[in-house]
Amino acid sequence: MANINNNTYDESQIQVLEGLEAVRKRPGMYIGSSGPKGLHHLVYEIVDNSIDEALAGFCTEIKVELLPDDVVCVSDNGRGIPTGIHPTEGISAATVVYTKLHAGGKFGGGGYKVAGGLHGVGASVVNALSEWLELTVKDGKNVHFQRFERGKYSEPLKIIGETSETGTTVKFKADSEIFEETTHYDYEVLLKRLREQAFLNAGIKIIFSDLRDGEEKSETLYYQGGIREFVTHIHTTRGLDVINENVIYISGTQGTSSAEIAMQYNDSYNELILSFANNIHTVDGGTHETGFKNALTKVFNEYGKKFGLIKDTDKSLIGDDVREGLTAIISVKLENCEFEGQTKGKLGNTEVRAFVENLVTEKLMCYFEENPAVARSIFDKAVSAQKAREAAKKARELSRRKSAMERDSLPGKLADCSESDIRYTEIYIVEGDSAGGSAKSGRDRRYQAILPLWGKMLNVEKARIDKVYGNEKLMPVVTALGTSIGEDFDISRLRYGKVIIMADADVDGCHIRTLLLTFFFRFMKPLIANGNVYIAQPPLFKVSRGKQVRYAFSDAERDRYIAELSGDGNAKVDVQRYKGLGEMDPEQLWETTMNPETRTILKVEMEDAARADEIFTILMGDKVAPRKEFIEKNAKYVQNLDI
Known about the structure:
Strand order of the largest sheet: 5-4-3-6-2-1-7-8
CATH class of the largest domain: Alpha Beta
CATH superfamily of the largest domain: Histidine kinase-like ATPase, C-terminal domain
Oligomer: single chain
CATH architecture of the largest domain: 2-Layer Sandwich
């Protein structure tokens, strides 16, 4: 219990934060974090305002520029923010938008029928979290200008010129007092989001330029085909072969709501459904996605029965069967979006489910009947998926019976730990018996388990789940972790809090890490989402002089240690390049890679599941060209890899 005398808690402790002060005090409440994700969110908020203007029919072009010193400039040719005096605030309406929370034209005043930014906090939050922000508004007659510093202004909105143009320009610099980690924008992160917006709003032109020193580049994002081109772009980027040559497109309206769906099947075993509501990516799905999935399963079964492809004695297809290899974009535009959660990750409008379900059921059935060859090729893939699912079920049951019959169901090569509390336990999945032997001898047996693997394992990107059961390389991992896989995955049965992949720091080691990560991502995804997967970082070099020893994890670190130990430069310094984990004795492996006090391990995070899905498909798929392009583009980010 707290000492009341020393920890006074009374009315004087209650703080009232006025206006934008609350935003600066707790930025994470408004933009998610004060790290890189929150930094990029500033740009999204301003761009979304321009997108909303485009949805209202008044904007056709948006320019986004990254200027030197990481200044951002967003301009559009919309109507321009109203500049007249606000009737209740007594200042310009534009000033109100940028200085008052929950102020905007998206609350039913008639300014916008469809908008993503429903809370009216975007512009003011960006202003509050910027070192400075400059607002320029063109209303067809005059050019209005106002400068803010950390959300505050010393001069009101003023006229600085005349013009016949309309539009809004916002230039700002993120505040390093808020974004202490970095204020540097990632071009690729912003490009992905802006391209997404251009796909979702057919006919809108977004010009994105990086004009920072030494990084000058520009792209024009303009897609007349809208989300149909989005699907094509996904398949082309990932190097996937399609089953139905043309993208299936469905659209319709109901009252003030509209929906459009683009879908196409490919030869992979994975589904990718991206859903959006008023241009906001609903990463957790919602009623629009549920309606689509229900309709898809219904149409496949009704079509199969109608044309004799499914007999009365056959089992019906389920959702997993009909969605195998599917890429689909679902986009709904609503007058009043109801999102679940502060991050707008899930759409909650109940009426949307029936709207989308009825729309897809009617139009997809018509499409199948009018295109029987396409329908049959897609249907055959679903039946093949059903057979694989049944085979996986039998393999799973066989695996369970085998485990139940065995007295000790844990893998024979697993060296388990004595602790059972997963807050403390960790398992090292180690490449090769030699390294496994060193790890077993050097570990702390109380809480560290070792599972050696040998040889290259199955690339699950090219295999269904039925091929995983019984696989001699993968099943020991599944059994040791205790969670099962796929639809049976249960994270509550996880036996270790940390799952650490430990492989050699060479090309083969990288391949093994990628194969394991692909397996975890495809069949045990919650393991990554929950933050249980790590990658060990073994050293590349041992630098020694007599009894003085340093371990280096990069060429630069090696050179620094050589200089440090050589003293005047005349002393002999020995440098050993580790080609594999097996070259280290147990003490060295413990000291460098396994001791929690001295080791470095990297947590595998999944901030953007769609991007992760894309990377795994590119790296582990069949097509060479996309993989080569990805490697060439990202080679500059690779460190500590001796090729």
